[in-house]
Amino acid sequence: MATNTTNVNGETYAHHHVAIVFSPNAGPRQGQQFTWKTFGNFDFSRKRKSKHQKGNNPNPNAVIRGQPEPEWSGEASALEADSFEDWDPTWGSHTFTISVTVRMPGHPSVPRTFKNATIDDDSFSSKSDDGAMVKMGGIATEILRKGINPIVDPTLSSGGGVG
């Protein structure tokens, strides 16, 4: 768990905790959990592209919402990344469920779940100020916040539409 200072709506919180857990969807460790202790700089993006529908009017007629393309990235200590690779030596051949939970004293926890996440980027970096780090990243099929995908409209019968 990483501890940091956070500013939320103008208030500074001295401690927030981020727990990051990888759980393989296949392979020898399927369903088990690897909890990262040194994972830092975790970033994600839903990367949905929207377009204007144009007609014979100078202004757009409508906005067409594109399909989301979720991505994630982060870095961990090289030693812990090595432990992860020993724990799941087949990590590059299957997807994961990644759980990221942010906790702040006095506030409810905020869980995010990355479904069918891949690990596509695995690069090493060594800097004198932050030690040896391994950068990782990949894509996911969806990112849920408190179990809800804010981009997909669950009322659509196909389940894959966007609102």
- How much is the average pLDDT? 77
Q: Characterize the biggest β-sheet.
A: 6 strands, antiparallel
Helix content bin: under 10%
Number of helices: 1
Give the strand tally.
Answer: 12
Termini separation comes to 35 Å
Query: Which spans have pLDDT < 50 for at least 5 consecutive residues?
Result: 156-163
Question: Rough shape?
Answer: elongated
Verbal overview:
- By secondary structure, the protein is mainly beta.
- 6% of the residues lie in helices and 50% in strands.
- The longest helix has 10 residues, at 78-87.
- Residues 156-163 have low confidence and may be disordered.
- It has one helix and twelve strands; from the N terminus they run βββββββαβββββ.
Task: Summarize this structure as a short list of keywords or feature phrases.
163 residues; mainly beta; 12 strands
Quick recap of the structure?
The chain is mostly beta strands and 163 residues long. Helices cover 6% and strands 50% of the residues.
